[in-house]
Amino acid sequence: MVVTDLFVGEIATELLKQLLEISRKSGLCKSNAKSLMAGINELLPIIQEIKFSGVELPSNRQFHLDHLSRTLSEGLELSKKVLKSNRWNVYKSLQLVRKMEKIEKKIYMFINGPLQLHLLADVHHMRFETAERFDKLEWSAKKLEESIGNFKTGLGGGGGGWVEEAVKKLEEEEMNWEGSFGNNFYSGLGIEEGKRKVKEMVIEWENLNVVGICGIGGSGKTTLATEICRDDQVKCHFGNRILFLTVSQSPNVENLRAKICRFITGNDGIDGMGYDLVPKWNLQFEWGIGTPMLIVLDDVWSLPVLEQLIFKVAGCKTLVVSRFKFPNVCNATYDVELLRRDEAISLFCHSAFGKTSIPPAADSNLVKQIVDECKGLPLALKVIGALLRDQPEMYWVSAGQRLSRGEPICESHESKLLDRMAISTQFLSKNVRECFLDLGSFPEDKKIPLDVLINMWVEIHDVDPEEAFAILVELSNKNLLTLVKDARAGDMYSSYYEICIMQHDVLRDLAIHLSSCGDVNDRKRLLMPRREAQLPKEWERNADRPFDAQIVSIHTGEMKEMDWFRMDFPKAEVLILNFSANDFFLPPFIDEMPKLRALVMINYSPSNATIGNFSIFSSLANLRSLWLEKVSIGRLSESTVPLKNLRKISLILCKINKSLDESVIDLSHIFPSLSELTIDHCEDLIHLPSSICRIQTLKSLSITNCHNLEKLPPNLGNLKSLQILRLSACPTLKMLPPCVCDLVWLKFLDISHCVNLKGLPEWIGKLSRLEKIDMRECSLMKLPYSAASLESLRKVICEEDVFWLWKEMKKVNLDVQVAEKCYGVDWLDDD
């Protein structure tokens, strides 16, 4: 190692001492000294690591270290001059400040440039060397296997050689080790034993790099894996370095690999940076390679996908959760067993009666008959138990008879599971059952925004939004879906966008199974269960006849014009386009959907998709609801045929591209009947076009998480029908225009998380119908006097310092609540 390396650390240490003195004594240079100290403190651990590593550096790295050494020496000399200078000599102090700023700039250029590249190069070298060593080990193992194969492993017809005996002994030990127990993952029965065995594989067996949890759908594999991640002993062993990823049937492998790379290299704190491995040197240095870490891959379906997600890195252990075994990848696998009878009865009773045993008033024999027909599957026990809860005895007898008439469940339970689970939908009312079947229209393991479902159900099931929400609650109570909601959701002014749902993949499979019966042209729902590169061949073979589907759900990657073929959908009312692509050409057969009422486009790619054939919207005369997510919106023109029936538009994570610019289009002309407009996470929205304010039918306007929105149109008060105005999380918005006070029908105002909003309009008291204000995390220091005149105001949510301002008004019947801190962006991790 070149001698210069030995002195860089010493110079940095001495410079740090000098800067500490400057920060205490010198006035003008104080802030520069502190900033420079922060940079040196970041550099010092790396310098010390290089200094004591004993490794000779390449010439290019030595050149950078020499340059850094000279820069630090200059800083040391400069700091001595600063300490000797007269603090009252302002001119000289300013000169020294500028010189310190130059030194600081050089150091930070080194930190953000060459240093990060060196660290990234080290990671790649390490991965290459590790892979090379594993290749050598695999070659050695193969040679050893060939040598062992030359031995005789059996003598005559019934004898056994030493290798055969060893293998047999290992198999017996594995069976004894795995044992048998019942897993009740919903009421806690038996889970400790399962945790103990998986923890033993994960923590104690250091030679097992990849281990698995295997079981049929609904048996509690994911629950066990989640409990492992939450276990204190596991978290301590891995130093909280645990990554949980859901893979699913249609995974975005590149994105998953990028997440794993960031996690292994210590850059998992960096989010939203695409597929690039962006180095963050301090985390990289802190964790390093070889630090114990656990990666959990849940819901794995494919061996080729799994092989791409396994990283051979020292200290990194992978836990694979799947319905299938992967013996070529997993060193050991734990088989999740179904429940024993006593555990099954306990779980069923917990779901059906809210107790852990059969109540005296219940028919014990009937309960045991139904439990036995569920064959120990936790999900079936929970769903059927919830279904029969509070039902009359005749329902129970009918359920028992239906279950008993089914064919016996095979050994694996998998092939007959859907037939058994179908019983859970036969006691639902017609509308509720239809809504359950609609859930098969969405990709697996993705959160479904409730707004999308509500819009669908309102249009095709002839229900109002409140009834549609009640159906959702009923399905949730029957354990046919899971509600995931924001902490604020639930009151009458909550946006449905704040709520989403998740569904177990077995229940989704059930919905698809029940929707796919009969001839493909006669089905009510035409669905693609998973993402495919092209449309199903079955559809193409039958495209010569019209399809009677009311709902059409397509799940593909990038689609070009030539990838589509003509299809006739005379009865289609809902079209759902799920895709993952940077470019997507809208299907030409939209022209053949004269009754289309709801269009949903959701892009699951990390970047916004450019949409081709955007002009086809002109043919959607009956469209009432439009949901666009993560797409670039094409420009509309004055020649666009007005969509006179369109009531709702939702633009989520979209690029607006000035498509709403009033100089190009009059929105009130194109959307004359619009009642709800939602724009969320649209970063390029800077000004809200004033033509929106001419849509006299608009009742709800939600502009949320648009971080570059600077101002609202001055004619906003023209929206005389507006009842809900949401402007949440728009940090660049500094004021509400005075015309807000002219919104005579306004009932709810949401300005939460608008951190730079200076105040409420002076004449806000004119809003006589305003019932609720959400102003959490706003920097308001005072309230206008007219706020005391808000006669209908019943609820205010605010920060503690504003709480007392409202209380001082002594308004009767006003509920003022201090906001709870709530942070969460889980909905973004859906790749």
From TrEMBL:
Pfam families: LRR_14, NB-ARC, RPW8. Belongs to the disease resistance NB-LRR family. This is RPW8 domain-containing protein. The lineage of its organism: Eukaryota, Viridiplantae, Streptophyta, Embryophyta, Tracheophyta. Residues 1-149 form the RPW8 domain. The keyword Repeat applies. GO terms for biological process: defense response. Keywords: ATP-binding, Leucine-rich repeat, Nucleotide-binding, Plant defense, Repeat. It comes from the Eukaryota. One of its GO terms (molecular function) is ATP binding.
